[in-house]
Structure formats: C-alpha cells, structure tokens
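Q: Convert this sequence to structure tokens.
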Amino acid sequence: MWSRPTFLVCLLALLTALSGVSRAQDQPKSEPEAGRESNSDTPKPEGHDRPTAYPRVRFKKDGVEKVNTPDGGSKELLTRAYLLDLSAAMTATITLSDDRVVSRLERAKELLKQSLDTIAKRRDVAFNIACFGTSDDFADRKAPVSVSADAVERAKKWVEDRVALGDSDIYGLLKVVFEQGPTSASMIVGSDPASPAGVDAKELEQAGGAQDFIIKQVEAWRKAGSRTALDITGIGLSDTQREFYKKLAKAGGGTYLDG
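A:
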C-alpha cells in the first residue's frame, strides 16, 4: 500500500498531465510558415482585401480569334470588359433627372443593361462582366462570352441578381484588365476607391496617396504596351470623386461620363 503523501503526489502529477493535454487541444492551429506552400485551394491574395478570384477573371480569349465579315473576309474579334461597382456605397439613393429616386446600384444596372442591348446584334465582340466590392464575374472564370441574343439576356439576368457589398478596391481588378489587354473596358462606379490592398503604405505615400498611385499605375500599364481603353461612368459622384475618375479615364485612354 502507498502511504498517503505518496498517493497525493502521484494524484497531483496525473492531474497536471491531463491539464496540459487539455490546453494543447484548445490551442488554435498555427498558420503555415512563411514561404511554405499551403495545401489550401484558396487563391492567394493579389491586390485585394481578401483571397480573390480577380487573377482568374478572363477578359480576352486565348490566341487571336477571327470572325467572318459579310464580304467573305474576316476581322479580329473585339473584347470588352465591363467593371461593375458592387461596394456597399452603391446602396445610397440618388434622384435622376426624371425625378425617380433609385439606388446607385439600380442606376448602374440600368446603364449596364442598356449597353448590353446596344451590342446585342454584333457578332464581332466577346465580353465579360466583373465586379469590385464583391469578387464575381459573369463568365465564371472562363473565357469571355461571344455576343448573342441568348448571351445578352443571360448577362442581363446575372446583372440584375447582383447585390452591393464590400469595399471599392478597384486596383486589383484594373491590374488584371490592363495585363490581359481587352480591346475596351467600361467601368460603372459610384464610390471612392479603397486603398489598394497588398500595396505598401510607403509606396502609396511616395506616389502622393492611393488615388495618385492608381492613376500612375494605369499610366504605366498603358506605356508598357496595354492598348485597353478605359471608359468610366460615374453614378451619384461628388465633385471631388468626379475629378478623380475623369483623371483615371484620361490615364486609361478613355472618357468619363456622368450616369
């Protein structure tokens, strides 16, 4: 038989060991070490505030595609990128010239669907619609969709189902657009651009702030050879916001319009 002191010492040791196991089980799992590959399928963050599908969005078909012309010849297929603001700011209401009161998003959807109707009869254009604020695209990470009556109707339904959510980080999406180089890009926006995620604060400061950084990057992409023309339509913007987007459209070789 154990003496009482020996029994108490053994019991205390056992309780201490069990407590250590419990604490180890409660500890959260550590993150993968820097530089070590993760087994997760989640895309790595690139110019956005969370893991994003932007790098997988496609605005140009692989290779140079041709379409037939009525005279029996052929021409290069044009590609268009629509960029839709789905940031939380798009829930704010505006009053239109016909006295209708709508949300900025409702107006943006209206204008985008009008543009889709305009290209509905063309057969020399492929398009995709991507969003910022919420990472999403109409082609679902596949090649741009060739224009047809069916494709336009599906796109209009897809646009109508979108909801406003998140921050307006346009930088990551613009980077993908100008790197891929579709023929044209049309942005519909109703919010301030968020500070570019993944960009060092010192780099933004050296550029003169987030807005100047974005403009300078677009200018650099164009000078590097991107032929994409960026047109911008502003929805309910203030004078200050309007001036920024006018400068951005100019840097992108396009024009700005109030929507």
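DSSP finds seven helices and eleven strands in the chain.
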